[in-house]
Structures are given as structure tokens and as C-alpha cells.
């Protein structure tokens, strides 16, 4: 048992969870010195360059022309819009609370599936949305917090990314889709260059280090080791690991930023995650649960890549 836990695939999965969870407090550090525009652009640019550098070694193929519309949608929503909205929201919302709100992104993906593909809805969606409402109310003084709603908008566009990436994952690996989307997202973020340049020139080292960390580790390395893990682990294990991102983010935020979440946020977050877990279990009961251990560059691995990986 201990040997299995220490195996590269489990270590990759644990590393992914820690990296993606650490992104939320790192954003708070970067925003203070860079602002929303600069942090968004720098993170996307650094991640895109890193993923392109890894691409030849990971056997990432060039996209097909017919895939460009979906890649464009994935880049615009899951990368550019997601980064800008999440960074904007975290100006006023604590990192741990932001992670709880982002956790409901799969709910929006399911809603889109129902709207456009006629997929069946379950009551679990109501549970997840109710939890998100509780968290949002807890952030406001006399109603819903505007900043919390902005982060919910980030969860929405991430849900669009999950939905739009599914057709691509039928013949492309998760790492390939992430690379395509990251490059497209960087292109869409280029209008932020003037504001980003001014902020970066005057930023302190800690803020620039935060942007570099976010781009290289959660956004680039996170996708690489996630692709490695999901190609070699059962789907249920990979899915369950994603539920650990919010609690780990809460712990990292407490240790690094001394953030103590409000009790109502914890309650609402627990309700939301419970709803997402129920949704995932319902989906898994209608699909295969195990994935063959294949090379991460093979399309067959994308049976696992249908797990809604955060667009980080």
C-alpha cells in the first residue's frame, strides 16, 4: 500500500492538487503588487511559453484546422476570462473562499450539457448552487458580495471551458488541449500589454515572483503532471482528488496569508462540494470507471481527461 502511494502516478496527483490549491493564495500576493491586468497576462504568457517548451517532449501535436473554433472558445473563456475574473474577484475575496466558489465550475458544465445536448439534470445541481449562494451571502455585508459574484462568473467561464473541451478530448490529449487553449488565451490577453507593462516595471520582486510561480507551476507544471496522473489512475481516483483542492487551498491560505475563513463560507463550501460530488458520481455511474495505463500523449488517455480539470 505504501509503495502504491509513493508511486510516481500518485505523487503526480498529489502534486497537482497542491499546486492548483496554492494558486489561490499566490494570486492574492501577485494582485497586491501587479494588479489584475498584469498578473493575468504574465501568468498566461509564462505558462504558454513553458507548455510550448514541453510540447516536443510530451509529443503534443499541432491542432487541426477544424478544431480552431473550439480552441478559440476554450482560450477565451477558460484562460483569458477565467484569469481576469478570478484575479479581479480575489482583490476583495479571500483565497480560500475563492477556491470554494470555483469548485462549482462542473455544475455550469452540466447545465450547458443539459441546455445544448439534452443531458439529464439531477437535484444535486440545486445542492451545489445553494452552497455557492451561502458562500456568496457570507461575503457580503447586506446581501450577495459583488466580488463573490465575479468569482462565480469565473467558475461559469471555467464551466464553459469544460463543456467546450469535451469534443476536443475525443481525439486530443488533455495536455494538448491545455496547451492550445493557453496559447489562444495569451493571444486574447495581448490588449492588456500596455497596462501590464506599466505595472510590471514598477512591481516589487515578490509580485513578479508570484506571477512566475503561477505561470510555471500551477498553470504549466500542473497540467503536465495532471496529464501523467489521469492516464495511469482510475477515473474515480482522479475525480476524488479534485475535491481536495478547496480544503488544501484553505490550509495553504491560512499558513501563508493567515486567512481564517468565515464559518458560513465553510458551511456553504461543504454543501457545494457535496453537490459536485453527487453530480460526479451520477455521471460516473453512466460511464466507464477505469482507464487503461497508456502513454499521456495517446488520445486513449482522454477517457480520463474528461475529468473536469481546472483551467489553471
Give helix and strand order, one letter per element, not per position: HHHHHHHHHHHHHH
Number of strands: 0
As residue ranges, the low-confidence spans are 288-306
**Structural Rg:** 18 Å
Beta percentage is under 5%
Q: What is the number of independent domains?
A: 1
* Class by SSE composition: mainly alpha
- pLDDT averaged residue by residue: 84
Give me a quick take on this structure:
The protein is an all-alpha fold. Helices cover 74% and strands 0% of the residues. It is built from 14 helices and no strands.
Q: Any chance you could write out the topology, listing elements then pairs?
A:
Blueprint lengths: L1 H4 L2 H47 L13 H22 L5 H8 L2 H13 L6 H16 L6 H23 L5 H15 L4 H10 L2 H26 L4 H8 L2 H13 L5 H22 L17 H4 L7
Helix pairs in contact: 2-3, 2-4, 2-8, 2-9, 2-10, 2-12, 3-7, 3-8, 4-12, 5-7, 6-7, 6-13
What does this structure look like?
The chain has one domain (2-305). The longest helix is centred in the first third of the chain and has 47 residues, at 8-54. Helix content is 74%, strand content 0%. It has helices spanning 2-5, 8-54, 68-89, 95-102, 105-117, 124-139, 146-168, 174-188, 193-202, 205-230, 235-242, 245-257, 263-284, 302-305. It contains 14 helices and no strands. It is mainly α and 312 residues long.
Structural key phrases:
mainly alpha
